[in-house]
């Protein structure tokens, strides 16, 4: 046993071939999403009049073909991946911050405060999410920020529940009492002792909720509430592609495969992370 | 004359890289009606030894080496507790909860055991269950049978756990009194001694408490870091220990009349996986010499009195 | 001269786990006093309330009745936040050292934590110096400070636990079964360390244990607790030779000597008595 938790987790992951493969694929995709478009010939909104709806590998320079308007599909897909990932990461981050703080305090304080805080969570849970999202959209207009708010506003609920359960168990442990005897105040105990010790399930849940955020964004898009055309996410591309499924199947296949790949890899990686963090496996 | 239980060169390893070894080539024997105590501290492997003998080793552990009970090899055979009971082997653990099902009444559990072992009908099994409770000196067996395990005190649960063992020929006990108060402990030990007499039972008890060894054991084996370092009759070993570790252990036990500084052995026992060449006790031994770090000491001496040390305390022994 | 710590009629209760309510009395009417620099032993079996009493003195558990005075001031009514300055004077050593350390923090960080919370004006280098000094005092090698709890042995961890309790220079130490989780060959190291530290620093100490022999080695005065009440309070020699309460007698009679003849005689003398009918489990 070498040292801190993270070095052990890294070691455990390094032995897991599935985790390494998924991590590699994700790294490649992320890199492609960030740097790819600048390396390719075409811009994402550039129209190639001579190659409209061209299948992959046919037209020069268009590796994965073009769409109905002659825009390069590869570049658009990479851009779409960028947008989807950005929204998902931001939303997950927001729900992580709110959820962890909420759950940690509720679990640590226990009693009536905890009951109140968790009843609030229960009430929000019962609200129909789509309904709420529609209201948000009406009030704040369509845009990435609205989507972010919509996903983040509900994403933190489950996180809060998970964290609260962990915090409730953690506060009974001796080292928390040791911190109290050592003069630590509530804020210090939560920040330095409770939160770091429940990072395991939190990280795993956050990893597994990323795909959920991506898919939720797609769903909202499907309902017509998603991001604007100009800032097309993967789900926009998929929606467009679905319309052209019979005549230009690659328009659907490319972004859909990309989405599937990302979701699968994150899920498998999350599973491996959970196994690596499981104290019984160590 | 073959012993009731015979262990030769038992080795227990666990999964991992490198595979940590818990028990390193241990040999011992228990005769019928004999009471053997195995003493050791953390990392000695005493509990793993017992678990291996009873087939209850964890899934990631593997045991090798002949372990014969009444001449039959028992290592690697059926792991279920019921099968072991059928072979005349009983066991008691630190925590009775391991033997008692929490959501079933005591009576039901006893009756089930009685029916399985004697193959009798339910009525006769209920009588047998009452008799089993009486044997472990529990009052009002009838009302007790209607209770659940969590309704009893620790000492009473331990008695029920013992009662569940239907007439074993050998009882394996892993620190059965550690979790109990000292007043209850003495009662349970008295019960075990009595049962050995009444049932003609042999006892193999694993403990870290030398007081229990003195109270119960005919023979003692001292384990350190996976090996047996000394073995002998209890009276002789406790009064004239030959291995420095045994001597150190005896000196370190706090005595009621004692004052001032407590004797101690500097350092700590090596954990499994941290073993090294030569005598494993050498770093902590006041008598260590050059030789000790090179060769593994081997258990040597007359059959009933063995020591694994390059420089054992000498003196006449009447084994 | 009034005592440093005075406990009068202290009572600690907990709600019963069963829904029908009522409260469980863990400690009932405990009264005793502790002088500066004195070491007092508190002996009893599990569930007798000794741990609850120790925690009540440290303000970790509220009193249902009675009072606790430290240097003449009542401290049982002090609210939690206001108790913090007192933590510099009243400290605790835990029973299970492995559980009392945050597995995510290094030993050095854990030992320094009371300083960060209670003496915040200390600079980082000063803090590090004090950590190094206290680790030296408890005999812990300096290179262990950067390790994590799971990398240390039980004895080493308990030394670190003592270091953490001492780093704020307390005047009173509650030791809650500090050696019960350790190997016999290591227990003596910690007991001797505690004795030495107490002598050198003039600490007052409440040493809680179920092991009468260990307590007898350390304490001049001993309290015996049974079912929440202090049933005996006297000098060590008196208690060992001429105990007044029958329970103390029972306790003494149950301690097994490491001598076969005496030990066997002891257990043979146990009446093959029948236990009382099953009583509901008391969860302290």
Your description of this structure?
The complex is a heterotrimer of chains A (282), B (319) and C (284). Helices cover 74% and strands 0% of the residues of chain A. Chain A has 282 residues and is mainly α. In chain A, helix 4 runs antiparallel to helix 6 and helix 10 runs antiparallel to helix 11. Chain A is elongated. Chain B has 319 residues and is an alpha/beta fold. A seven-stranded mixed sheet of chain B has the order 7-8-9-3-10-11-12, sandwiched between helices. The longest helix of chain B has 18 residues. Chain B is globular and about 70 Å long. Chain B starts with a strand and ends in a 12-residue tail after the last strand. Chain C folds into two domains: 142 residues, Rossmann fold (3-Layer(aba) Sandwich); 72 residues, no CATH class. Chain C is globular. Chains in contact: A-C, B-C.
List the helices and strands and how they pair.
The complex is a heterotrimer of chains A (282), B (319) and C (284).
Chain A: H1 5-15, H2 17-39, H3 73-109, H4 111-126, H5 129-140, H6 144-170, H7 174-181, H8 186-197, H9 199-222, H10 234-243, H11 250-277
Chain B: E1 5-14, E2 21-30, E3 35-39, H1 46-54, E4 61-64, E5 67-69, E6 72-73, H2 81-86, E7 89-92, H3 106-118, H4 122-135, H5 141-145, H6 154-164, E8 170-174, H7 182-199, E9 202-207, H8 210-216, E10 219-224, E11 227-233, H9 234-239, H10 244-252, E12 306-307
Parallel strand pairs in B: 3-9, 3-10, 7-8, 8-9
Antiparallel strand pairs in B: 1-2, 1-4, 1-5, 5-6, 10-11, 11-12
Helix pairs in contact in B: 3-4
Chain C: E1 5-15, E2 23-34, E3 39-43, H1 50-57, E4 65-70, E5 73-74, E6 90-93, H2 107-118, H3 124-137, H4 154-166, E7 172-176, H5 184-201, E8 204-209, H6 212-218, E9 221-226, E10 229-235, H7 236-241, H8 246-254, H9 260-268
Parallel strand pairs in C: 3-8, 3-9, 6-7, 7-8
Antiparallel strand pairs in C: 1-2, 1-4, 4-5, 9-10
Query: Between the first and last Cα atoms of chain B, what is the distance in angstroms?
Result: 19 Å
Low-confidence residue ranges of chain B: none
Strand content of chain A: under 5%
Largest beta-sheet details of chain A? none
From the 3D structure, determine the CATH topology of the largest domain in chain B.
Answer: Rossmann fold
Question: Helix amount of chain A, in percent?
Answer: over 70%
According to CATH, the homologous superfamily of the largest domain in chain B is P-loop containing nucleotide triphosphate hydrolases
Task: Tell me which protein chains meet in the greatest interface and how many residues each side has.
Answer: B-C, 61 and 52 residues
Shape of chain A: elongated
CATH architecture assignment name of the largest domain in chain B: 3-Layer(aba) Sandwich
CATH-derived topology of chain A = MetI-like fold
């Amino acid at each position: 046993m070498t040292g801190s938790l993270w070095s052990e987790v890294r070691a455990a992951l390094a032995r897991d071939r599935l985790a390494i493969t998924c991590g590699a694929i994700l790294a490649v995709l992320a890199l492609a999403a960030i740097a790819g478009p600048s390396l390719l010939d075409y811009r994402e909104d550039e129209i190639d009049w001579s190659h409209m709806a061209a299948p992959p590998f046919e037209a020069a320079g268009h590796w994965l073909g073009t769409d109905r308007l002659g825009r390069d599909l590869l570049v658009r897909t990479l851009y779409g991946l960028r947008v989807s990932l950005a929204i998902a990461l931001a939303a997950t981050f927001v729900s992580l911050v709110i959820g962890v703080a909420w759950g940690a305090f509720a679990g640590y304080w226990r009693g009536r405060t905890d009951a109140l805080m968790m009843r609030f969570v229960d009430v929000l849970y019962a609200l129909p999410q789509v309904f709420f999202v529609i209201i948000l959209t009406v009030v704040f207009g369509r845009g990435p920020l609205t989507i972010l708010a919509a996903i983040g506003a509900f994403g933190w609920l489950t996180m809060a529940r998970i964290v609260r359960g962990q915090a409730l168990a953690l506060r009974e442990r001796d080292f928390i009492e040791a911190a109290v005897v050592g003069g630590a105040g509530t804020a210090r105990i939560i920040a330095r002792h409770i939160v770091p010790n429940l990072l395991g399930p939190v990280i795993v849940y956050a990893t597994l909720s990323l795909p959920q955020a991506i898919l939720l964004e797609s769903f909202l898009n499907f309902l017509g509430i998603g991001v604007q055309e100009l800032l097309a996410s993967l789900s926009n591309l998929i929606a467009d592609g679905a319309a052209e499924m019979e005549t230009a199947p690659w328009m659907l296949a490319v972004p859909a495969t990309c989405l599937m790949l990302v979701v699968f890899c994150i899920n498998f990686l999350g599973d491996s992370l959970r196994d690596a963090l499981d104290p019984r496996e160590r | 004359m073959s012993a009731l239980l015979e262990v030769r060169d038992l080795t227990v390893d666990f999964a991992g890289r490198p595979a940590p070894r818990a028990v390193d080539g241990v040999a011992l024997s228990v005769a019928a009606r004999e009471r053997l105590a195995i003493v050791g501290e953390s990392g000695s492997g005493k509990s793993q030894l017992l678990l291996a003998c009873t087939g209850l080793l964890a899934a990631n552990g593997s045991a090798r080496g002949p372990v014969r009970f009444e001449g039959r090899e028992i290592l690697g055979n059926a792991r279920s507790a019921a099968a072991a009971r059928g072979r005349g082997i009983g066991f008691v653990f630190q925590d009775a909860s391991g033997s008692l099902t929490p959501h079933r009444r005591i009576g039901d559990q006893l009756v089930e055991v009685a029916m399985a072992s004697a193959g009798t009908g339910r009525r006769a099994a209920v009588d047998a269950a009452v008799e089993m409770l009486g044997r472990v000196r529990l009052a009002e067996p009838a009302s007790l049978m209607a209770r659940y395990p969590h309704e009893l005190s620790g000492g009473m649960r331990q008695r029920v756990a013992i009662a569940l063992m239907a007439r074993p020929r050998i009882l394996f006990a892993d620190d059965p009194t550690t979790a109990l108060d000292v007043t209850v402990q003495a009662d349970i030990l008295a019960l075990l001694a009595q049962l050995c007499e009444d049932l003609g039972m042999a006892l193999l008890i694993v403990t870290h408490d030398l007081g229990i060894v003195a109270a119960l054991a005919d023979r003692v084996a001292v384990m350190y870091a996976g090996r047996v370092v000394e073995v002998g009759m209890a009276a002789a070993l406790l009064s004239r220990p030959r291995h420095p570790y045994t001597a150190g252990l005896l000196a370190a036990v706090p005595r009621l009349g004692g004052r001032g500084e407590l004797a101690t052995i500097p350092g700590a026992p090596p954990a499994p996986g941290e073993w090294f060449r030569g005598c494993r006790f050498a770093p902590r031994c006041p008598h260590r010499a050059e030789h000790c770090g090179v060769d593994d000491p081997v258990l040597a001496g007359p059959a009933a009195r063995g020591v694994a040390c390059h420089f054992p305390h000498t003196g006449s022994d009447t084994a | 001269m009034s005592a440093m710590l005075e406990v009068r009629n202290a009572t600690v209760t907990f709600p019963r786990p069963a829904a029908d309510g009522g409260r469980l009395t863990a400690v009932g009417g405990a009264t005793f006093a502790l002088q500066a620099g004195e070491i007092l032993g508190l002996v009893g079996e599990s569930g007798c309330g000794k741990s609850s009493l120790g925690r009540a003195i440290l303000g970790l558990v509220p009193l249902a009745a009675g009072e606790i005075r430290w240097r003449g001031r009542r401290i049982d009514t002090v609210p939690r936040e206001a108790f913090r300055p007192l933590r510099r004077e009243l400290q605790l050593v835990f029973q299970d050292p492995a559980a009392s350390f945050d597995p995510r923090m290094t030993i050095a960080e854990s030992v320094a934590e009371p300083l960060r919370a209670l003496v915040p004006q200390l600079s980082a280098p000063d803090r590090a110096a004090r950590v190094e000094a206290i680790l030296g005092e408890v005999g812990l090698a300096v290179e262990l400070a950067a390790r994590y709890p799971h990398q240390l042995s039980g004895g080493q961890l308990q030394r670190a636990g003592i270091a953490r309790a001492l780093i704020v220079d307390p005047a009173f130490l509650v030791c809650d079964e500090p050696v019960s989780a350790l190997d016999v060959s290591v227990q003596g190291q910690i007991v001797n360390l505690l004795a030495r530290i107490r002598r050198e620093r003039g600490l007052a100490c409440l040493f809680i244990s179920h092991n009468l022999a260990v307590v007898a080695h350390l304490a001049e005065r001993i309290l015996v607790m049974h079912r929440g009440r202090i049933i005996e309070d006297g000098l060590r020699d008196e208690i060992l030779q001429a105990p007044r309460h029958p329970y103390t007698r029972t306790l003494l009679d149950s301690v097994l000597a490491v001598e076969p003849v005496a030990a066997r005689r002891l257990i043979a003398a146990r009446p093959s008595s029948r236990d009382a009918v099953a009583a509901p489990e008391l969860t302290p």
